[in-house]
From TrEMBL:
InterPro entries noted in UniProt: CHK_kinase-like, EcKL, Kinase-like_dom_sf
Protein source organism: Aphidius gifuensis
Coiled-coil segments: none
Protein name: CHK kinase-like domain-containing protein
Superkingdom, taxonomy of origin: Eukaryota
Positions of the CHK kinase-like domain: 129-322
Length: 407
């Protein structure tokens, strides 16, 4: 079914946004064209529209024509999934990030654009953000099914390292930021529907694993046993430890929440972040574990994991020094220790988010289809993907060694 364009998303609304964002009362919108901004299976907690506006404005004594593209991000239709997003306060978090925290981080970093500009926010009827469309700047999503190659991963790691460094500086300047971002994706205070998605996903995986021929069946039994407790364990892993190094994590750092830019030869040259609904103050291992378990290709993970960790720490340390952070960066030993401790975060992500990353576009589902209902609970077609099966089979021995499969 085609995405219905809301009646309020009209010429008058866009004209009001443009006048404010461009600081130009002479703007008169001639027409707008609005389309869905994402494909099915690419976004689960909001509806996103891309609106291109053609408008007139004064330039000196002349009247000229101009064009601008905007992303309008708003709540899901009324129903249980919208209630989940509202109760979890996901839009509140993103509005705080995009109107205050990110501005501070970018001003401290000076030469690094972390995200698109935020032109307008609204906290009710409906809740929304109007954001810069990064596509005209050449940014686009990478191929999530292929997994990120080394060049893409190096940019993604460098980008998150600078994001983290900027957050350290921002928190030193405004300690209140440490208190504002305290939920993330795994949190016991979230609505029960959030927990249901992850528990249902892990049980669904365990059921499918029983039909896999290349896996020790003890792992399928263990997966079913830990399904009920892993979400809470991932939530517990975010409890702050005063002895650890802390940053503001993106919180949902996977391939669909970053965009890349390419040169004329198709070489990837730049990276930027999107979607700040799940930001979380805590160990940087949260973002790193989540990223490693959802986004790189299996080849990159096997060959270049240590290279990427070293690159992260090098960029983090250099950036923190450059912008004058008083806090000391972690040592490599400290970071690796944190990664082991936070692997539960990536483990749950691999069991529930990675299948969505690897699913064929023809089999992509929205959140309602995945969650199902009381008569037909949890039905994620993504678990049937052979590429996902290979990825999980390779990781299971390490998770078992770390005790993550023990109930």
């Amino acid at each position: 079914m085609a995405l219905e364009i809301p009646s309020w998303l009209n010429n008058q609304f866009i004209e009001r946004i443009l006048k404010k964002s461009e600081n130009d009362d002479s703007i008169r919108v001639v027409n707008i064209v609005t389309k869905p901004a994402t494909n099915k299976g690419d976004n689960y907690t909001s509806q996103m529209y891309r609106t291109t506006a053609n408008f007139m404005r004064h330039q000196g004594s002349k009247q000229i024509t101009d064009k601008k593209s905007l992303i309008i991000k708003t709540t899901l239709p009324d129903g249980p999934n919208n209630n989940l997003v509202q109760e979890a306060g996901l839009f509140d978090i993103e509005i705080k990030m995009m109107t205050n925290t990110l501005r501070d981080m970018e001003s401290l970093l000076k030469d690094k654009k972390l995200a698109g500009k935020c032109y307008y926010t609204q906290d009710a009827n409906p809740v929304m953000l109007v954001i810069e469309d990064l596509a005209p700047l050449g940014f686009r999503m990478a191929d999530r099914q292929a997994g990120l190659d080394l060049e893409h991963c190096m940019l993604a790691i460098s980008g998150i390292a600078k994001f983290h460094a900027g957050s350290v500086a921002a928190c030193e300047k405004e300690p209140k930021y440490k208190e504002q971002y305290h939920k993330g994706i795994f949190n016991s205070s979230h609505p029960k529907e959030m927990k249901r998605f992850f528990i249902g996903g892990m049980k669904g995986l365990a059921s499918v694993m029983k039909n896999w021929t290349d896996v020790d069946q003890q792992y399928a039994d263990k997966m079913m046993s830990v399904a009920e407790v892993s979400y809470d364990r991932a939530s517990d892993s975010t409890i702050l430890d005063d002895n650890e190094f802390h940053v503001i994590n993106h919180g949902d750092y996977w391939v669909n929440n970053m965009l890349f830019r390419y040169d004329n030869e198709g070489k990837v040259i730049d990276h930027i972040l999107v979607d700040f609904q799940l930001c979380l103050y805590g160990s940087p291992a949260i973002d790193l574990s989540y990223f490693f378990n959802t986004s790189p290709s299996e080849e990159v993970l096997q060959k270049y994991y240590d290279k990427l960790i070293n690159e992260y720490l090098t960029i983090l340390s250099a950036t923190m020094k450059k912008i004058g952070c008083k806090t000391s960066p972690p040592t490599l030993a400290d970071l690796k220790k944190s990664l082991n401790q936070k692997e539960i975060y990536g483990f749950v992500a691999a069991c529930t988010i990675l299948p969505i990353v690897l699913v064929d576009k023809a089999d992509a589902q929205n959140l309602e289809e995945i969650l199902g209902d009381d008569e037909s609970p949890f039905n994620n077609k993504a678990y049937m993907n052979p590429a996902y099966e290979r990825a999980i089979c390779r990781r299971l021995p390490n998770w078992n060694r770390l005790g993550l499969l023990d109930a």
